[in-house]
Amino acid sequence: MKYILTISRIIVGVLFIFSGLVKANDPLGLSYKMQEFFEVWGWGFLDNYTLAFSVAMIAFEIIAGVAVLVGWQMRLFSWLLLLLILFFTFLTGYAVFSGKVRECGCFGDCIPLTANQSFMKDLILLVLIGFIFIFRNKIKPVLPTRGSVVILFFSAVFSFAFMWFVLLHLPVMDCLPYKVGNNIPEKMKAPPGSIPDSTVISFVYVKDGKEVEFTADQFPEDFDDAVYKFVKRYDKVVRKGNAEPKIKDFFLQTFYQNDTTQALLQEDKYQLYLFLKDGYHKGTWPEVMETIVQTATQKHISSFLVTSIPIADVYSPEAPAVFNKLFPLRLDPVVIKTVARTNPTLYLMKKGTILRKWSYADLDKALPVVLTLSANPAPAEQVQPVADSTQQKP
């Protein structure tokens, strides 16, 4: 019994620490996943608090994992772990049986698990934690009280400090499809060797007041237009494939809704893209960005502002002056959440390939890189090739 209890503690403790560290690398990812659940449940009023929930939950995961390994205050932590795993199992179970959420974000974006995989993992953990809970009084601390408290204290400090760092400077390990080195147009294609969905054309008719459905090769023998009233036809998926691209919704538009995605991403020239959500961070970064744009302009490097905020806000007196020196483009706000884990985030790209990217807090590191870039060929005419001729600043 003692050995089984020890092994259970090690498995639970290591899994909780590992899961917490993976999510701590990108707490915004868990925050957005929470928003997805809240949207399904109609709890949108909690969206502004999801980042705080995310940080607190991740820190607790790591601290609880350490507490289980050192065996400190197991009467308390066994209760907390049991409540937490019951909550996680409910979430993953809801995702499986409702079908409304495809992934639960248990290991963040670095180790994506399907809802079924997450649910099975939580069921196994529930059994292990239930075993620990039943025999919690038999667990003795591995270290003296002072040693356990010191370890837990530094675990908490590390957890919060690490999350503060990545929220300010971008994730340490980039597991998103927009990581450095990826080519966006390639990621917008289905993976090589992938299998598309297998579909059949299905027809829906009404007969004797009831809807009946059949495929093109299964028409009923008594079919007659006087008996069967057509309702609709649609493509029915009979076998789900895996031909889903990593990037699906990256569509750049001018503010007059002209699609410029392919025109820009196929240019064999250096380009700078400043991705901006609403409610961007204040600070000194606009001055640094202005210097970067000036340097880029001298090298004939185009600079773009990619945002979802209204054009009037881009050029408002309260907005940073550097916005006036960037060509504005629109992108779906949900996509910007994935592209820009800090707000704003600067990308250096060439022919659709992400060469470098920087948080707004690290723009001082972007300037030396732009200075070392070779100049793009001078354009024949000093006009933006993708701009609308009718576009004017308000």
Present the secondary structure layout.
Elements: H1 2-24, H2 27-41, H3 50-70, H4 74-98, H5 115-134, H6 145-169, H7 184-187, E1 198-207, E2 210-215, E3 229-239, H8 261-265, E4 270-276, H9 285-298, E5 302-307, H10 311-314, E6 327-330, H11 333-339, E7 345-350, E8 353-359, H12 363-372
Parallel strand pairs: 4-5, 5-6
Antiparallel strand pairs: 1-2, 1-3, 4-7, 7-8
Architecture overview:
It is a single chain. The protein is an alpha/beta fold and 394 residues long. It has three domains: 2-169, no CATH class; 176-189 and 246-394, Glutaredoxin; 198-239, no CATH class. 44% of the residues lie in helices and 14% in strands. The chain has twelve helices and eight strands. The chain has helices spanning 2-24, 27-41, 50-70, 74-98, 115-134, 145-169, 184-187, 261-265, 285-298, 311-314, 333-339, 363-372; strands at residues 198-207, 210-215, 229-239, 270-276, 302-307, 327-330, 345-350, 353-359. The strands form two sheets. It has a five-stranded mixed beta sheet with strand order 6-5-4-7-8, with helices on both faces. Strands 2-1-3 form a three-stranded antiparallel beta sheet, with no helix packed on it. Helix 2 (27-41) packs across helix 3 and helix 4 (74-98) runs antiparallel to helix 5 (115-134). The longest helix has 25 residues, at 74-98. The chain starts with a helix and ends in a 22-residue tail after the last helix. Residues 382-394 have low confidence and may be disordered.
